[in-house]
Write a structure and sequence with these properties.
Order of helices and strands: HHHHHHHHHHHHH
Distance between the termini: 53 Å
Oligomer: single chain
Helix content: over 70%
Radius of gyration: 20 Å
Structural class: mainly alpha
Number of strands: 0
């Protein structure tokens, strides 16, 4: 009995989404390169050796929390607080994961574990937008697209972190690599502000981060994140109720 073509030849169905994910995420290389170079330089300046720098990058793969941890370590903050602050900064990954469950939750446990390990802002932003625009993508195509998004980001993050750590002192200060940090998050956030709740949540986070900047050990970021989540959720409920009232 001949198997259907869709089952017998699954490769092309997933190869194209993989390549598309790679292409769609490739512009972020322009941000990831200086971002990871900067982390390598800053980490060595903070006193970490090459093995420690690479271990941190490979295990965490989250620039924002890595910079947060470095800043606190340089201020001789207790390790528990450093870990708590880094975890708080990375809480957004839990929200990313929850948002992707309807699209990638069908995958095998090992695949989901690898997706969780590779979860970064760039891959989530690009993949989530793609899944919304093309709801007819199959589960296998969505997984392939996500891995395509990470095909460039992750290796380049490792390689440029190593270069920054190994050759950091040879990089001229005039290059001002620190521009990559705000540019990266602006590029990630701006396209996602597509509704009232998104805008309200972003606005509350900005105001709260400034208002609570005086709190020690970057706790202001934790407070701002929690307030933004609450504001976004309440705004979504408000708009939903208003829409239902009109209908």
């Amino acid at each position: 009995m001949t198997r259907p073509a869709a089952v017998a030849d699954p490769g092309p169905r997933t190869a194209r989404p993989f390549v598309q994910g790679l292409v769609d995420c490739s512009p972020f290389v322009l941000i990831v390169v200086p971002f990871s170079l900067l982390f390598g330089v800053v980490a060595r300046d903070a006193g970490l050796d090459l093995l420690q720098v690479m271990s941190m990058s490979v295990l965490v793969i989250a620039g924002a929390s890595q910079f947060t941890a470095l800043a606190l370590l340089q201020d001789n903050v207790p390790v528990f607080i450093v870990l708590l602050a880094a975890l708080a900064v990375n809480l957004r990954m839990a929200m990313y994961s929850a948002a992707l469950v309807p699209h990638l939750g069908h995958a095998r446990l090992g695949v989901r574990a690898l997706i969780a390990y590779l979860m970064v802002d760039q891959a989530f932003a690009v993949a989530a937008k793609k899944y919304e625009e093309e709801p007819k993508m199959t589960g296998g195509q969505k997984v392939a697209y996500y891995f395509g998004c990470m095909a460039l980001i992750c290796p380049i993050w490792y390689a440029c972190t190593f270069l920054g750590a190994a050759l950091g002192r040879a990089i001229p200060a005039s290059l001002s690599l620190d521009f990559a940090v705000p540019v990266c998050f602006i590029a990630l956030t701006a396209p996602m502000l597509r509704s009232g709740p998104h805008v309200i949540s972003a606005g509350v986070s900005v105001v709260a981060a400034i208002a609570f900047a005086w709190l020690p050990w970057n706790f202001g970021l934790i407070v701002a994140a929690l307030l933004a989540i609450i504001a976004g959720a309440q705004a979504e409920l408000f708009f939903k109720r208003r829409t239902e009232a009109r209908t």
